[in-house]
Fold:
Amino acid sequence: MRRLLLCVPLVAVLAGCPVDLQGWAGMDHQPKALPYRDSPFFADDRVMRQPPPGTVPRSRRGQSRLFLTGREVPDAGSPDAGYLDGVPLPLTRDVVEGGGRFYEIYCATCHGILGDGVSQVARNMALRPPPSLLDLPPYPDGYYYAVISEGYGLMPAYAEKLTPAQRWAVVAYVRALQVSQRARLEDVPPEARPLLLKEGTP
Structure:
C-alpha cells in the first residue's frame, strides 16, 4: 500500500507531461508550410504553389495528347484546332451507360435530361439559356470533349470532376442522345420496336 501511494505523484507528473517514446515530438514544432497559410519563403507569401506550365500528372504519363485534350492544337483559339473526330474508347454498352450517369449528374441540370435544353435552370436563365445539344452544329467529338474539360461561357470546366475516360464517355452518351432523339421507329431494330410501342402507349 505504501508503494502504491508513492507512485501516485509520479503518475500525476507523467500524465501532465507529453512522453515522446518515438522521438517525433520535434516534428510538431518544426518550420513547415501548411495549406492556405502564408509563408515568407516565397516572394508572394503564398504557401500553395501553381504547378509549372506543362506539368503532367504521373497518372497521365504515356497517354496521348489527343486523348487528354481532344485536339491536336494545345490552345482552342481557332474553330479548326484539329479536334478528334471520334471517341477514342471502345464504345460498349457500359461506356455509354456510364457516360449517361455522369451526364445526369453534371450536365442534365442545365441541358435537360434529354439534351434538349429543357430544364429548370434553363427556364431561370432568360438572358442566355443553355443550348439544346440536339441542335448544335456538327462539331467533332473532340470539340465536345474540350468544352466539357475546359468549360464554355457560363459552363464551368469539369476536368477536376471527371477523368479523361469519363469525359469521353459523356461525349459518347451525348452522341447517343443526339441520334436517339431524332430517330424514327423505322430506325430501331425490329426486335426492339414492340417494347418502344408499349412504353409509348399511354
Observations:
- The two ends are 89 Å apart (CA to CA).
- The chain has eight helices and no strands.
- The mean pLDDT is 84.
